[in-house]
Amino acid sequence: MFSIKRVMASKKVQKSLFARESSGLVREINWLTAMFISMGFIAFYVLPISYLSGLFISPNGLIVIGALLSWIVLLPHAYLWTKISETYQRTAADYVFASRVLHPAIGVGVGLVFGISQMIFDAAIVYDGVGQLQTGFSALAVNFGQPYMGIASFLTNPMIILLIGAITFSIVIAINIFLPRFTNQIMGAITIIALITFITTGVLMHFVSPYAITRAGYDYSSIISSASKANPLFSNPALATIGLMVFTASFLPFVNGATSVAGEVKGGSKAFRMGVLMALVAAGILITFFIASSVSSLPSSFYIGSGVLGYSNLLNPVFDVVVSNPNLPLDLFLVIGSYFWYLAIMFAVALFVSRYFMAVAFDKALPTIVSYVSEKYHSPVVAHLIDEIITISSLVIITVTPLSSAFFYGMDTADAMALLFGFIIVILASIVSISLKRGFQFNGNKYFMLAVSIVDLIVMSIYAYYWFGNSTIYLGINMNAETWAIIASPFIAGIIIYFMMRAYRLKKEGIDINYTFKEIPPE
């Protein structure tokens, strides 16, 4: 009789552990919106700028082949996250998976790594978005003079950058909080404009001429000759090509945009195959097309030389296209439309960050209020406000304080945080789950999934080796004890927070949150 009562009491305690029986979120995300979220979170719109800027590091790499392979080698990665999303259709599905397969403290560390690193990343996107407008209006000034020259100069003012960035991001957060039923449509419209602008810019890159570069005030022949001054990081063309691919590792591995909202996606397995796997394929094809078009009109030596000379404007395709096409309506569309590249990313990241904080709080490893979902608006209000406060604070640091260089030092490590203490740990959880039959299992052939996971681990490890082995090139930092502490800090904080919250809730509430991680949260 005593044992029966104890079992019943245990079940009652476990049931009370979750913050709520239903998350209360709006569940209207179809496969197309899930795909848009994934493509925005991959942030492929800004990848050509990063890729072209990195050519002077690997001038002997195979440019188009590198762009093509950069997403092909990540197909196993996207497939693994597709299966995680299909199998665990919960908010922040990869966090839920890792925290159930591995120790809960490790899972909480992973959840905080994804959330914190992407808030830092989002602050950079907000900042760079205004920079994109400044570059675009500088190109308009070449063609049409005033008032565009004045606007470009106006956009260099740090306070203006802060004001525009803060207002824009606040609007993104406000829409997510107060208009969640319309967020999908708004995001869809922004994504369509971003895609049209991206494709149009890619097509027009094929027609950029040396004459236009000279007309913009640059010595084209000097740029070409400066390419010979580049110091290759790798002499072997194969290694140099991988070196180029590593520049995409700050963007393409982030396929978990749709995974973050897996509990809100309608359409079952098909929705996640389209939302995760096909998002990478679509983004990869567009990137390859864009890079191929860029080097079809201007030789690789142009981009290499521009990198050597530090001509950042010339490494921005929108600048090159606008100065080559003095057509005011078209140019205004391209300049303003390219800002939508950054808006699409902001919307995706805002969704992502809020869901990870909410999911960790849902398991009671953060204060329960963080998981609060408004009954009126059906959105995670507190989680969004945390994102708003930290992102805007980071933007302030970037723009108007002497700490900007120190912040960028940390920002450059944000992707390293996610790679090392996010993606790789989730991949290891997959291998543990399959090989040791521990925790919750994937649907489908386990041997195939094990092979996919191992291949993914190899690819991520190669990227990590390049990043950390050449950190001054790829991250702009020297790897030392301080650097490692910064990279590991969110993960370590997550582990500490888990044990602190477990002790607190045992003492104050009489419950052990460890039970939470024995089952899938009831959404």
Automatic annotation (TrEMBL):
Localisation per UniProt entry: Membrane
Q: Which residues cross the membrane?
A: 29-49, 61-80, 101-121, 159-179, 186-213, 233-255, 276-295, 332-354, 389-410, 416-436, 448-468, 483-501
Alphabetically list the UniProt keywords.
Answer: Membrane, Transmembrane, Transmembrane helix
Kindly indicate whether the keyword Chaperone belongs to this entry: no
- Main localization (coarse): membrane
Tell me which GO cellular component terms the UniProt record holds: membrane
Per the record, membrane topology reads: Multi-pass membrane protein
Report what the protein is called: APC family permease
To which species is this protein native? Acidianus ambivalens (Desulfurolobus ambivalens)
